[in-house]
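Chapter summary example.
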Amino acid sequence: MRILLVGGSKSGKSHLAQELCRKLGGRLYYWATMEPTDSEDLGRIERHVLDRDGWGFTTVECGRHLRDALPRIQQDSTVLFDSVTAYLANEMFGETIDTDAAGRCAAELLQISTCPENFVCVCDELWRDGVRYDETTENYRAGLAHICRALAEAFDVVYEVTAGIPKLWKGELPQ
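The structure predicted for these 175 residues follows.
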């Protein structure tokens, strides 16, 4: 089962993803992609760690070159990948700006999402606010939307989460 959760920042996506992972069962992995750059990032990571404390997740930290983390994840498991947003930022923004990163990220995510039994993927929705940003930001937002479209097309279930309320757009969860 492959599930995509899309929504705004702090909308409840990660918490819902954790609940879905527990329902799906098996050995649980939390695949963390954020590479913190400031105290706000560290605070967000701390909140996520506290939120999943006691849920039985094994954390795998890998925000680049995702295939490198696969040997640490059992095939008969459920993986919560959090998040596409950070993963694309890691790949796109380095010493130079890689405007081709989104295509590679989408292909890699589609490939690795089939390795564990269940893959639950979280992505911030940053492309619908109607504001026009600088070219670099627009490239990032377009890349993120590209990845989410590719995942939504291929995945079994797609949710949009707003204010903690999930809206099912595609598929259904097994009972």
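To summarize the output: Helices lie at 13-24, 39-52, 84-92, 101-112, 135-154.
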